[in-house]
Amino acid sequence: MPEPPALRPIILGMTGASGADYGLRLLQCLLTAGWPVQLLLSKAAQIVIHMETDLHLPGRPRDIQRVLTEHYRCDPDQLRVYGQDEWTAPPASGSALAQAMVVCPCTTGALAAIANGNSDNLLERAADVSLKEGRKLILALRETPLSVIHLENMLRLARAGAVILPTNPGFYYRPTTAMELVDFIVARILDQLDISHMLLPRWGESPEPR
Q1: Residue 42, Cβ density class (10 Å: 0-12 exposed, 13-18 middle, ≥19 buried)
Q2: Are 36 and 7 in contact (CB under 8 A)?
Q3: CA distances in angstroms from 152 to 148, 149, 156, 157, 158, listed in the order given
Q4: One digit per residue, pLDDT tens: the chain, 210 residues?
């Protein structure tokens, strides 16, 4: 019997927006589901992770990769972490196949750079590649209120094929913890990626007894 085709990696970019738990929880869910992940961390993202969580990451991408692999207990070949200036990394080229890309959380600065095709770092270039290759690009924007500039950039990207997914959780399932609010957004992202999950009940389903 031939072996099933290998899964294409999902590119996960994390910027310096508040809401590091959104990206880290998504990373955990992807790894647990068996997906290979290429993680692109901005320097600001590393600072915010240190500020908002108990996870302390080293400075170098390979060291971050080792720490996260141990933290999430995933296969060593499942996670790759690339620095912002690693232009020879696979996400920099459309010839390197990927399933999709998610920027979570996404700053309005990253939103603007992607909307204008700046490609000044690996994360922006990877997003540009996703758009030009017609691959799914999900931007989990974390900002409020939004200016006209932000809204115009969102519209421009939506017209280019990106999915704009603001980190605005719902409350109909009566969350009682901050992590349940995080899971609401992560669940919406996993739905967009067509990855099954059981993070929370869907509309019309009875919630689990507490």
Answers
A1: buried
A2: yes
A3: 6, 5, 6, 9, 10
A4: 444 567 999 999 999 999 999 999 999 999 999 999 999 999 999 999 999 999 999 989 999 999 999 999 999 999 999 999 999 999 999 999 999 999 999 999 999 999 999 999 999 999 999 999 999 999 999 999 999 999 999 999 999 999 999 999 999 888 999 999 999 999 999 999 999 999 988 887 766 555
Largest CA distance in the chain: 56
85, two tokens: 């200036």
Report residue 129 CA to chain centroid gap: 16
Contact (Cβ atoms closer than 8 angstroms) between residue 126 and residue 73: no
Angstrom distance (rounded) from CA 149 to CA 155: 10
The packing angle between helices 20-32 and 61-72, to 10°, is 60
Q: At what angle do helices 20-32 and 43-52 cross, to 10 degrees?
A: 100
177's enclosing H/E stretch is: none
